[in-house]
Amino acid sequence: MNAIQPQFRHVLRIWWAITWRSFLVVVVFDGVQYLLNSLIVPGLHAAGLSNSVAFSVITPFVLAIALGLSLFPIYGILGKDFGSFRLILATKDSPKDVFHPPPGVVKRPL
């Protein structure tokens, strides 16, 4: 496994790969949120709950769906071939494929 010096063009390619996928997720999520708000909230309102209480009931479900959908853009780029590099996950302790950063690469703590 060859390590490369991170450059701005690498960051830009990864950022764009995440951004356009995130935009698609937002569009899908908007549709899901619209359906939830237009179907469930009026039913809760008809059951005697005020609009604010009905939205308070639906908000945790909306947030759970949003958090679940937010994983897809990241998952979609893992293993992606970007031409001159590939975004992968590598084990840290594998003696066969030990990662040695090239000179000048600063090891950043998490």
Describe the structure.
The protein is mainly alpha-helical and 110 residues long. The protein has helices at residues 8-46, 51-69, 71-77. It is elongated and about 65 Å long.
Alpha-beta classification: mainly alpha
Question: How far is it from the N-terminal to the C-terminal residue, by CA?
Answer: 22 Å
Q: Compute the number of strand runs.
A: 0
Order of helices and strands: HHH
Estimate percent helicity: 55-70%
Task: Tell me, briefly, the overall form.
Answer: elongated
Descriptive tags:
110 residues; mainly alpha; 0% strand; elongated
Brief overview, please?
The protein has 110 residues and is an all-alpha fold. The chain has helices at residues 8-46, 51-69, 71-77. Helix 1 (8-46) runs antiparallel to helix 2 and helix 1 (8-46) packs antiparallel against helix 3 (71-77).
Topology:
Layout: H1 8-46, H2 51-69, H3 71-77
Helix pairs in contact: 1-2, 1-3
